[in-house]
TrEMBL record, chains A, B:
Start and end residues of each HTH marR-type domain: 15-154
GO BP annotation list: response to stress
Organism: Streptomyces eurocidicus (Streptoverticillium eurocidicus)
UniProt xrefs under InterPro entries: HTH_MarR-typ (IPR000835), MarR/SlyA-like (IPR039422), WH-like_DNA-bd_sf (IPR036388), WH_DNA-bd_sf (IPR036390)
Protein name (database record): MarR family transcriptional regulator
SMART domains xrefs: HTH_MARR
Cited Pfam families: MarR_2
Length: 155, 155
DNA sequence: AGATGTCGTTGGTGGTCCCAACGGTATCTG
DNA sequence: CAGATACCGTTGGGACCACCAACGACATCT
């Protein structure tokens, strides 16, 4: 029988504090998320972009000519950061920034042909990285994992 | 029957690019992890510390008097960041930094009584935050989720 | 015409992670 | 013992991410 009356440790018993912390879902989530980000960002870096570029490029592809603010609302990026991301994408020739004649406050962001081609490659690279991320899971486990993960993410 | 011959989109069919990205495990992992970090860090902030403080405090509690470099290796923090974290903990009176007489290169980091009490409260707050993080899952689902999560995190 | 609000942009903060270099100290080796 | 080697804590810096405040330009509502 173990000693279970360690009052000072708040009911956690004799478990080492570090062991306890590392067992927390939040800790494991951070580890898994960091691994995913590493895998994905390394893959995308082979095409010279970051994850934010991929996300914004995807949004532009979906929404056709679209204002920056609308992109920001859709993707969740701060307007400040959106400026930099679009600067990069524009400099790389993947999107165009044109003044909107109907509302001169807005920039109409559009995908270039090269942007479309790049996006297709990015999507493939992203899929491959995610394939590796879930490599230890069987197809059934992946489905179950994603289902539970979504519940946790949405709260 | 849907059109499945959209060559340009690399086999993804007619699915919008954003929908595709958001369905990726890496994307959902990031969302869930961000939510967990937000919940935990908000909870720990009520005791005036960040997650790194909690982790290091736990390591000090486990390892008794211990050198900074050893703490860094155990917790994975960069030596540079460890300096700042210990500065904070020391300023708050939670740990002591004493020169190690046996090896004058080292600082012997020890937990103070107040550090021990604070750590117990932090552990409780962390547990509560994690309880909320997994609130949408049944006990059985939580167990299964953690099991799969560990596999993904470890790669 | 004036109030109100949105547009893109600039500037700044804080957290996380990583790398390079330094003076001080210990240890290993000839 | 002397010199090479390695580790200690510290400083400085950079990249990325998330977030907030303020601004001039412009559109819209009343």
């Amino acid at each position: 029988m173990e000693n279970e009356t360690a009052a000072l440790t708040g009911g956690a018993g004799d478990e080492p504090a570090l062991t306890r912390i590392r067992a927390l879902p939040s800790w494991q989530l951070n580890r898994a998320s960091a691994r995913g980000r590493r895998l994905v960002s390394e893959a995308l870096a082979r095409e010279g972009v970051r994850m934010s570029h991929h996300a914004v490029l995807s949004a532009v592809s979906d929404l056709g000519p679209v204002a920056q603010a609308e992109l920001g609302r859709t993707t969740g990026f701060d307007p400040k950061d959106m400026v930099g991301i679009l600067n990069d994408l524009q400099a790389a020739g993947l999107v165009t920034r044109a003044p909107d004649p109907l509302d001169r406050r807005k920039n109409a962001i559009s995908l270039t042909d090269e942007g479309g081609r790049r996006l297709a490659r990015l999507a493939e690279l992203g899929d491959e990285a995610n394939e590796e991320l879930l490599g230890a899971l069987t197809p059934g486990e992946r489905e179950r994992f994603l289902e539970l993960l979504r519940k946790v993410a949405e709260g």
